[in-house]
UniProtKB/TrEMBL annotation:
Domain called C-type lectin: residue spans: 36-152
Record flagged with keyword Signal: yes
Organism of this sequence: Mesorhabditis belari
Pfam family name, one: Lectin_C
Superkingdom of source: Eukaryota
InterPro entries: C-type_lectin-like, C-type_lectin-like/link_sf, C-type_lectin/snaclec_domain, CTDL_fold
Stored PANTHER family: MANNOSE, PHOSPHOLIPASE, LECTIN RECEPTOR RELATED
Keyword annotations from UniProtKB, A to Z: Signal
Signal sequence residues: 1-20
Protein name (database record): C-type lectin domain-containing protein
Length: 156
C-alpha cells in the first residue's frame, strides 16, 4: 500500500513538473531561450542596415538584442557566430552623445574591443556590431552599412 502511495506521489510530482514546464514560458519556434533573462533570441542572416534590422525585430515583437551580462552574451553568440567573418548588429547605438539599447533597457554591461567606441570621421549615425573574429567584442559601424543581426523578445 505504501509502495502504491509512493508511486502515486512520484507520478504526481512528475506530472506537476512536466505540466509546470508547459506553463513555463517557451519561445516561438526557431527562437532560443535564455532562461536567466526570460528572453528569446534569433539570428537573422539577411543583410540589413541598422534601422531596418531594428524595424524587423520590432515587427517580430521585440528589438535588436540587448546584453546585460557576459553569460547572456556568450550564450547567444556561441550559438549564432558560426563563421569568423559573421558580423551581427546588436541593439546598441549612439543617440546624440549617449550609447543606448534600442529596447531602452539599462546600460549595465558593455564589451567593446580596445579602442572602441570611437566616433567615425564623417559623423554618420553609428551603432555596434559583434564580431566573432574578435571574440564577439563589439565594434562601431555606420548605421547604413548592412549585416545580419540578432533579435530578442522578452517572455511575458
Ligand atoms: C552611408 O552613407 C554615406 C553618406 O551618405 C555614404 O557615403 C556611404 O557610401 C553610405 N554607405 C552605404 C553602405 O550605403
Amino acid at each position: 500500500m505504501f509502495k502504491v502511495f509512493l508511486h502515486l506521489a512520484f507520478l504526481f510530482e512528475f506530472l506537476t513538473l512536466t505540466l509546470g514546464q508547459d506553463h513555463e514560458k517557451i519561445c516561438r519556434e526557431k527562437w532560443t531561450l535564455f532562461k536567466a533573462s526570460s528572453a528569446c533570441y534569433k539570428k537573422f542572416p539577411s543583410h540589413e542596415c541598422f534601422d531596418s534590422a531594428e524595424a524587423n525585430c520590432v515587427h517580430e515583437g521585440g528589438h535588436l538584442v540587448s546584453f546585460h551580462s557576459q553569460k547572456e552574451m556568450q550564450f547567444i553568440t556561441d550559438r549564432y557566430s558560426q563563421s569568423s567573418i559573421d558580423r551581427l548588429w546588436i541593439g546598441f547605438h549612439k543617440v546624440g552623445n549617449t550609447w543606448e539599447w534600442t529596447d531602452k533597457t539599462e546600460v549595465d554591461y558593455t564589451f567593446w574591443i580596445d579602442g572602441e567606441p570611437k566616433d567615425h570621421e564623417n559623423q554618420l549615425p553609428i551603432a555596434a556590431f559583434t564580431y566573432l573574429f574578435d571574440e564577439n567584442k563589439w565594434l562601431t559601424r555606420e548605421k547604413n552599412e548592412t549585416s545580419g543581426y540578432i533579435c530578442k523578445y522578452l517572455l511575458k
